[in-house]
Design brief:
11 helices; about 375 residues; Glyco_hydro_20_cat; hydrolase; alpha/beta; TIM Barrel; Family 20 glycosylhydrolase; HEXDC-like; two-stranded antiparallel sheet; single chain
């Protein structure tokens, strides 16, 4: 009898192990890192970081916020003051390819067309694209404010806006040799403004979803995948997620209207909200994202592993993995990561979160 029980336990263990192997082999597993593209003067250090830290430690996806920090040829007037050259970008590409890291450039589309009291390059050069031209940029920015100004948006229905932004998208994806593009699209507070001659009276969820669809369709022409942040597709009031991590201006219904082959980066920085299950249940691929708290980073990673291990064969492939986000320029983060004296506490917190992620990855080997 003992022999029978032992044999059954052995085969049960073998089946579980084999089943786990099948799960791991069949599911795309993202270990991601998102940060602003480095300044030209920090290029060599950043490439070294890829070669010595990201690649050897299992990071397989690198999202770089490029925005207007590249020497665009199609619209050179949209370059910022210190853009990366094509030669410099190719150094990043070579380092990423060496370690088989998926490189995904980002340009903020729709929202985040301003920051604090300054317009970004698109609305500076093309003010006619502004969704809310009646809202003036303040000399001294404060939040909250009477205009509800956090960041400006471009009007998604302006007949000329996509001619410009898609040219930038094409350039940046080509130079980075990328198979995907991150369009941002988080924290869109200005949409469907009642003073916009094109958007007034339209459904905000449909406006948002249609813009996602336009970008997705454009990328699909070159076989590329669209990534976006997920906050505008979550409901903020009933859920308690609030107006930052979710929507309180009517865009949440877009979760059922957007194309199903996009990748949603679902960010929550104070606790690991279980919202990846919402996106997966709607048929969307999802990456769970964290920022500056070690315990929250670990909770995100454990949560996504739990979802993968305890989901059916339809849902499981939707849980792509996790991503560390860095919301500072590359230099202060690198200073903190390498423990350079004088690093700010905020940068040190980001670095500690990322180190916790790397430790977790190592423990799974």
């Amino acid at each position: 009898m003992k022999l029978v029980i032992s044999t059954l336990l052995f085969f049960s263990s073998l089946v579980q192990s084999f089943g786990q192997v099948l799960i791991e082999d069949s599911v795309r597993n993202v270990y991601g890192f998102a940060i602003a593209a480095p300044q030209p003067q920090d290029m060599e250090r950043f490439v070294q970081f890829i070669d010595q830290e990201l690649g050897p430690n299992g990071i397989n996806t690198l999202v770089l916020r490029v925005d207007y920090g590249y020497e665009y040829e199609s619209y050179p007037n949209l370059r910022n003051e210190n853009p990366l050259s094509k030669k410099e970008v190719k150094k990043i590409v070579a380092a990423a390819q060496k370690w088989n890291i998926q490189l995904i450039p980002q340009i903020n589309l729709l929202g985040h067309q301003s920051w604090a009291g300054d317009l970004e390059m698109l609305l500076t050069e093309y003010p006619e694209f502004d969704e809310t031209p009646h809202v003036s940029m303040p000399r001294e920015y404060k939040w909250p404010n009477e205009d509800g100004l956090y960041c400006k948006s471009y009007c998604p229905l302006h007949p000329k806006v996509h001619e410009v932004v898609f040219a930038l998208v094409d350039e940046v994806t080509e130079v980075f040799e990328s198979k995907a593009f991150h369009a941002g699209m988080d924290e869109v507070f200005y949409i469907g403004d009642d003073k916009c001659p094109r958007c007034a009276g339209k459904n905000n969820a449909q406006l948002f979803a249609d813009e996602v669809g336009r970008i997705r369709d454009h990328l699909a022409q070159s076989g590329r995948e669209l990534w976006i942040w997920g906050d505008r597709m979550l409901e903020g009031e009933i859920s308690g997620l609030g107006m930052w991590e979710a929507s309180e201006n009517g865009t949440e219904a877009s979760i059922d209207l957007v194309p199903k082959d996009i990748v949603v980066c679902d960010w929550h920085y104070n606790v690991a909200e279980p919202t990846p299950a919402i996106f997966a249940s709607r048929g969307l691929q999802v990456v769970s994202c964290f920022w500056n708290k070690e315990e929250v980073a670990l909770a995100h990673m454990e949560m996504m592993d739990f979802f993968k291990a305890n989901s059916n064969e339809t849902m499981r492939p939707k849980y792509l993995g996790t991503m560390q986000t860095i919301w500072s320029p590359a230099k202060p983060f690198l200073d903190a990561y390498y423990e350079v004296e004088g690093s700010s506490q905020s940068s040190l917190d980001q670095a500690a979160s990322f180190k916790a992620m790397l430790k977790y990855i190592k423990e799974q080997e």
